[in-house]
Amino acid sequence: xxxxxxxxxxxxxxxxxxxxxxxxxxxxxxxxxxxxxxxxxxxxxxxxxxxxxxxxxxxxxxxxxxxxxxxxxxxxxxxxxxxxxxxxxxxxxxxxxxxxxxxxxxxxxxxxxxxxxxxxxxxxxxxxxxxxxxxxxxxxxxxxxxxxxxxxxxxxxxxxxxxxxxxxxxxxxxxxxxxxxxxxxxxxxxxxxxxxxxxxxxxxxxxxxxxxxxxxxxxxxxxxxxxxxxxxxxxxxxxxxxxxxxxxxxxxxxxxxxxxxxxxxxxxxxxxxxxxxxxxxxxxxxxxxxxxxxxxxxxxxxxxxxxxxxxxxxxxxxxxxxxxxxxxxxxxxxxxxxxxxxxxxxxxxxxxxxxxxxxxxxxxxxxxxxxxxxxxxxxxxxxxxxxxxxxxxxxxxxxxxxxxxxxxxxxxxxxxxxxxxxxxxxxxxxxxxxxxxxxxxxxxxxxxxxxxxxxxxxxxxxxxxxxxxxxxxxxxxxxxxxxxxxxxxxxxxxxxxx
Length: 498
Known about the structure:
By secondary structure, the chain is of the alpha/beta class. It has two domains: 15-403, no CATH class; 413-490, Transcription Regulator spoIIAA, CATH 3.30.750. It is 62% helix and 7% strand. It has helices at residues 5-11, 15-39, 44-60, 76-86, 88-107, 119-141, 150-164, 168-187, 199-213, 226-229, 244-269, 279-296, 305-313, 320-335, 345-359, 362-371, 373-388, 391-410, 438-446, 466-480; strands at 69-70, 302-303, 413-418, 425-433, 454-464, 488-490. The strands form two sheets. The chain has a four-stranded mixed beta sheet with strand order 3-4-5-6, covered by helices on one side. Strands 1-2 form a two-stranded antiparallel sheet. Strand 4 (425-433), helix 19 and strand 5 (454-464) form a beta-alpha-beta unit. Helix 3 (44-60) runs antiparallel to helix 12. The longest helix is centred in the middle third of the chain and has 26 residues, at 244-269. It is elongated, with a radius of gyration of 29 Å. The termini are far apart.
């Protein structure tokens, strides 16, 4: 007995919109999943596995109803470094531990606190990732091997590009990659009917067609098969958890994946009028997805703003769209895996160069410099530190700068001097007296007349730290030792809680 049509519509009132949106998200996600995997130094199929888990598993869980998860360009550099340093089997352990930490933080209701991370640090982190990603993928555009460190990648680029023009294969690879980037840049200017096909899919499709028709001597994706690529981490790999380096990498994965996912959720919430994100539940959902990806030996996942925005703009209403997109990825990986072998590596590199460029917020930096130079400085220093040192250290430097800036701004101090020409000079301190403002305080007090008595009024202070108190007592002793009357200090009135 078939179910009446009206009953089906009542149970799934937005099925038509969600079905259409899922196809759009699938077409956007497919080349990105493959491209991120190849750039991360792992089999292309593992990117699809992460996309499938992000769609079906994380997509079914509560948290953010419309944002879509999968492998992200923002973690490409970190994954590549982890695979190079610890090996592919250890990647599963890292991702599994990352998922377990995210689940724990979500259960402890710590998800909301990620919203307190300085936006400049997060944007600086993404900008640094974008710069390293661009530098690394430019080598892939010319079929060359990229150096290991960020500075070496940037320093070696001019030579690699010059060498490319002397080789027919490298020139063809560069032309194909540059054409892919050009299609992505120009796609949004084409008529709306043409743009029904997502830009990344069109760019890869055209590049694949050009490589086949022109018989270009360019590298293509290696195909291992879906089941052949899934390699759960062996028990021996878990022994590396005792190493400090691996633990630091896990912390970096957790912080970056969680921050990117929750910032993406906040951005997606601004794009629609549906239910708002439950941040702790979303962190648990991301953790569950990463834990499963770790068990399968796949890439880590985050919520991806590109796919999420495409989902909303395509008219998605419920989480059914992101679950269905995972189903389409699964069907593609199971039924058409050999199609991946036709995709040129330079085309995927072009997609990631374009994605990396979008991570560098040049307009935001210019705007911040005009209005909040301190925030702009944090953004730039974080990005440069990631390029010059490493991801983890760069983020720590950015966070430290943000804390110092906040502490500096919070320690406002004001000294008001009242000198009536006769009698004691009255000095009133108000605000927050911390060690950060100590030089300014002492300079002002030492400028007071040495031959006049001073009355120092501290009742306007909201906070007086130990360093400032000790310095003020020392100054008062020195001033009194000059032969004048002892400095009279009026302390703030202390109230005790009842």
